[in-house]
User: What shape does this take?
Amino acid sequence: MASTKAAGELKKGRLGVLGIVFFVVAASAPLVGMTGAVPVAMLAGNGAAAPGAYLVVGLTLLLFSVGYAAMSNRVTNAGAFFAYVGRGMGTNMGVASAFASIVGYVTIQLAIYGFFGGLLQGMMAGNFGIDLPWYVWTIISWVLVTALSLLSVDVGAKVLGTLMVLELLSLLITGVAILGNGGPEGLNFAASFSPDQIFVGGFGGGAGIALAFAFASFIGFEATAIYGEESRDPKRSVPRATYWAIGIITVLFAIVSFAMVTGMGATTIFDEVIARSSIDGVPLADPAAVLFSLATEYVGPWMATVMSWLVVSSLFAGLLAFQNAASRYFFAMGRGGVLPKSFGTTNKAGAPANGVILTSALALIVVVLFAAAGLDPILNLFFWMSAITAIAIVFVEILVSLSVFAFFRKAGGENVWKATIAPLLSAIGLAVGEYLLMSRFNLLAGTAADGVDPSLPESAWSLSPLGWFLVLSPFIAAVIGYVAAMVNTKENGELVKDILS
Assistant: This one.
């Protein structure tokens, strides 16, 4: 594909703050988190205090965003993470972080493809009698996502914006209706937000499980800086979009999950989640039924129906958002010489076409392999890949926080809060989050060792051989990237130019 610019630049001025926010909030797929992660965080985690766990994680990520936004004023690059890490910790670490980031963004897209196909298979068969294998629906979505990504990022932003507004409205209407009613016990803020309840059970027990699922639910917000080159004013748009995205996601999860607790009653939360999510006596067999049943009870059956279809649109929005994020990483790596130069070019629409094609090709290959092996699209493809994503992205966020600190120590130009305190505090908080994600990987991914109940505190780190490979895959990718950068000094030189531009 021919580049529209000899230097390999993405088309500028396509996105404003709202466009970027649409992409990153859509990528976090809040409705999917509410239906999938929140019920698990309640039942296996800290019960009625799950909303507080989401608030704690949101505040931790706000600390991260302070340094992240400050760095965006110095570096504008489509591969934001690796450019930031490269500026603060050297090009070799920058390339290492790029490889880990690619693992994160490719696996989350694969996870959503699995969830999308599995969910739509059941919905189309149940509602319309159209009984097709999950991979057929996945491939249909794959075609649409690839086509939209090749058109231009602003077309994608319009699609994502429409879907996201509908999704947020459904959640807010349901949350307000429940809170306005008061539920069976009234509003119990202490049960959900007091520190002693949030951290009940400790990091090795219920609190750790809830916080791990909360960290996983926020994946996607960090993509704001990826769109800096395509924004109208990156020095202002990226910081504002970052704060807006984290604020929206945090408030949404905290309020709606608190409404869910209120609707079920804080003192009976465990029994209620079990009753609402069980199929044939198996708890959490249908976690989405928790929110859907509350929507039916407090708003009406029509809202549950609307939500069930908005989950599908939320997944599609996430597919498009992460397709754009991954393809822009490939673009930045191609322009920097880490990948072939052809990846650092754009098509006539201004999209990184070769990056889009590579991202789509990888996704299609894995989907076909999983289908051929007869693996489950949700239990295997979704849970395995989404758990890898959480490990990969939080790992790179830790590197970014440390890089912000290292960069401003040498360069100066920012106050002590932005340059030192916030980045170091976020690195500590994220490191705790990474520990929780890795120690509870058996529960997140369903890869516990034989005979181990992953929901028990003593089951932390009890992984099958497959589980160990999956949990370590982002770090393996980072080591490969670091070694590749050390070996190829020519690529290093070109990457330095891109990082410092």
